[in-house]
Amino acid sequence: MLAHRPDFFSAVSVILVTLDSSTTAGLATILDQASIAQPAPPVDRPILKIQDIPDKGLGIVAGQAIPRGTILFRDQARILADVRFPQHVRRAQGQTLLHKAAGRLPEPDDVRNLSRSIKAKPGEARGLLEENVLSTNSFAATVDGISYMALFPEIARINHACNPTALTRFNDKDLTQQVIAFRDIKPGEEITISYTDFGLTHDARQETLKRRWGFECTCDLCSGGPDATAASDARRQRVTALRAEVVAHLQKGAFDTAIAAYEGELLRLVRTEHLAEHMGEHFEVLARLHLAAGNRTAAVSYAQQALAELETFEGVSGVRAGAVSESSSGSIQELREFVKALHGQEERKKKRKQKKPKGEKKQVKKQKTAKKNGDK
Ligand SMILES: [Zn+2]
């Protein structure tokens, strides 16, 4: 079918591999409106530098102290390929397609040099290299509800760590991806992202990294020795158990017990193991739990903290190969309303207290006493 024939469109420096021309046209419009500029290479920023990392080759390191939430740099997608396209063509056809796609880029070597396991040999299947690059270096990106493999050459150079220093955030309005400091980064510390899901235990992480990317991880979390690894795994497993416990408490309507488990243990473990891209969702849950338990002051405080986290980290992804979350601007707006409403209630309560004349208070007390006596 003609509509399913992979279609090419080259705009500025982005190559699109789509399944039909209407999607191509949609993406082209995004590119037209985005006024795409060549991204500045990370080395241009004084806060970052490229240097040799032992056993890893080149990596990006912090040139100075970088606070959590800082946008480190931004990279433009060079290839955007519909995830379904490999199913619509024969493998050799797909490779030729990708080879042509890379060839249309102003700097095809930006993409081809990303292959770590395959070196181009004359006469070798054209496109094998590009196929390898796309399968091991691309990020999941959703545009207009369609999933793509997106290739960002500068970001692809960032090495993996199970406890990374950075996160990424895809912008479907201009097809760029940002790299954001996940925590405070010290000068000389490497900028890393996680290629695997957050929360996996040591063996599960190693297995995934070996199978998908062909390397054994020697990051701080993986090389701390058997005792440290066992302790980290136990904390990760405890988080899973605790989530179930909190849900069980809630089902029984035991809000205070659920809050105690959440605040007393779950939150601490999530922070220790860096299991969440940001704390926004946890704070939001706690705000709602406190509201349900009748503690408005705590609810307001958590809702404000949730909003602050979401305003910095909204839409980030901690995972390289994972799905990019849909734009959550709906939820951030909802949270703003929630904070406003809670805040309004608190203010009204304070004002009522301030306005209440002393005499009235006494009278209420008297009435209560009278009622008590009457009950007797
Ligand atoms: Zn590791």
Automatic annotation (TrEMBL):
SET domain ranges (all copies): 46-196
Segments of skewed composition (Basic residues): 349-376
Region named Disordered: 342-376
One Pfam family from the record: SET
SMART domains: SET
Protein name: SET domain-containing protein
Organism (species): Sporothrix stenoceras
